[in-house]
Amino acid sequence: APLPYSVCPMEFNSTKPVEECELSSETAFFWYRQTIDASPSLNEFGGVKWWMALCLTLSWIVVWFCIMRGIQSSGKMTKLLDPMVWMDAACQVFYSLGLAFGSLIAFASYNPMNNNCKRDAIFMCCITVFTATFATIDIFAVLGFKAVANFEKCVDHNLMKLETIKSHLAEHTKNINITYDNYPVTWPMIFPSIKAYYENETHDHFQECSVAAQLNEAAEGTGLAFMVFTQAIVELPGSNFWSVCFFLMLLALGLGSQFGTMEGVITNLFDMKIFARVRKEVLTGAVCGLSLLIGLVFCTGAGEYWLGMFDQFAGSMGLIIIAFFELVVISYVYGHKKFSDDIQKMIGERPGLYWQAMWRFISPLTVFGIVTASVVTTFMYPPTYPAWDKETVSMIALLIGYEQPYSIPWMGIIRINFVNVGRISTNSFGILNKKVPVREVSIPIFIKLLSRGLKLLCPLKE
Question: Which residues take part in binding Na(+) (predicted)?
Fold first, then answer.
C-alpha cells in the first residue's frame, strides 16, 4: 500500500485532488493539515489535538518507566557575520554533546572517582564531529533533492496552465520550447505576454519557480524530519520499510535525549534534602506528569508555532546563558586552580595550557560575544515565527503580537528579564566568591536557597 504522504487525497465525492495538497506538496499537506492540523497563527490554538496528546502521554509514560528507578534502567560566507548563525551552531553543539542541560553532570555522578574524564571528552567530541559531518552531507543532499523536485513540480504546473492559453499569446512566444533546464531563461521572455493576457490576475494562475527560492524556504525544525526526509523516503524502493526504520530512529533519539535531560533534573531534586523521603518512582512520575501537562500546549493547532517559540527564546538563548555562567563559576568562583587540582587528583594528570586558556578566556569570551550579539539582534529585528497559510499553501513569517497589541509588551518584559538576570548574576559573582564556602560552590546557589527556604517552611522529622 502507498504511504499516506506519498499521494494527495481526493476531494469528498470527487476524483479531483485536494487543492491545498496539489498546490503545495504531499508531505507538506500531510504534516500541516492531517498530522498537526496547524492553525493560522500563534494566537489561535484550535484546541488540543487528541492524537498528539495521546502520543505525548505515551512518550512520557515510556520516559517514566525507563528512568523511575534511576540510570540503570535507561538504556554562504556572509552568513558567518550573522550572530544568530553562531548561536544556532553553538546550540547544535550543546544539543549534540548534552552541554548545559545538566545531564552530563548527572551521568558523571555515577562514574568512579578515577574515571578518565579528559579521555571521554576528547572521544565524544571526535565522534560528534564525525556524525555531524556525515549527517550534514545527507541533510543537504535531501534538501537539494526536495528543492529540485518542487521546482519541477512548479514548472509542470505552469506549463500545464500555459497550454490552455497558448493560442491567446503573442505570435513570437508560441513556438518557444520550455524545459526544466532553460526555464530560468525562457520563462521571463514569455511572461510579459502572459501578463498582458491575464492583466492583474496572473498570480492566481502561475507560480514563481526557482530552485534558489526552494532552498531558501526549506523546512526547518520538525518540518525537516517530517516533510523533507519523508518526501525523500517516498522515492526509495521499499519506502514502507525505510519509513518504519526512520520513525523508529526518531523515537529512539527523542527518548534518549529526554532520558539525559530528565536525569539532570531528577538527580538535582534528590540531592535536596526536602525530597529525601520521597520514593524515586513517585518523584519521577510527578516530574514526568508535570512535563506532560506543560507539553499539552504543543498538541494544539498552534503547537508547532509554540514549539518554535520555546526553541528560540527558551532553548537556544537559555542554553548559551547557562553555559556562560558555568564557565565563569568554574574558572572564577570555584577557581581554575582548584578545579585543575581536582582533575589531577582524579586522573593523575593536570590540565595543560590549552585547557586553561579555553576555560578562562576563549570560551567565556566567545559565548559572551554570541549572547550579546544575539540579544542586540533580537532588539533590532522584531521576532517572527513561520506559520502555515492555507490560502497560499506556503509558510509565511508572522510578527509576534501583530494581532494582539498586548503581546508586544509581554515579549518586551521577557527580553528585559533576560538582561536583568544577566546583570544580577554577573554582579553577584564577587559576593559569592567571598561569602560562599568553597565546599558549597559546586551546588547551584538557587537550589541551596530553595532547599533552605523549604526546610524552614516544611521541616523534616529526624
Answer: 96, 253, 257
Using DSSP, state whether 10 is helix, strand or coil.
strand
User: What length is written for the chain?
Assistant: 462
Contact 309/385 with Cβ under 8 angstroms? yes
State the Cα–Cα distance between residues 304 and 320, nearest whole angstrom.
Answer: 23
**Residue 24 assigned to a binding site:** no
Known binding residue 243? Answer is no
Q: Which three cell numbers stand for residue 231?
A: 518526501
Q: What is the pLDDT of residues 118-144, one digit of tens each?
A: 888 889 888 888 888 888 888 888 888
Q: How far apart are CA 96 and CA 194, in angstroms?
A: 51
80 annotated to bind ligand: no
φ and ψ at residue 388, rounded to 5 degrees = -85, 120
Strands 384-389 and 394-399, how do they pair? Answer: antiparallel
User: What is the separation, in whole angstroms, between the first and last Cα of the chain?
Assistant: 65
Helical spans, DSSP H, in 166-238: 171-174, 183-198, 211-216, 222-223, 229-234
Exposure of 152 by Cβ count < 10 A (0-12 exposed, 13-18 middle, 19+ buried)? middle
pLDDT tens digits for range 90-108? 777 777 777 777 778 777 8
C-alpha cell at 424: 544580577
Please check whether residue 344 is in contact with residue 350, taking contact to mean a CB–CB distance below 8 angstroms: yes
Instruction: Phi first, then psi: give them for residue 286, nearest 5 degrees.
Output: -65, -40
Nearest CA to 113 out of 348, 321, 409, 334 is that of 348
pTM of the entire structure?
0.56
Helix 407-435 to helix 317-328 angle (10° resolution) is 10
Grid cell, residue 322, equals 547557562
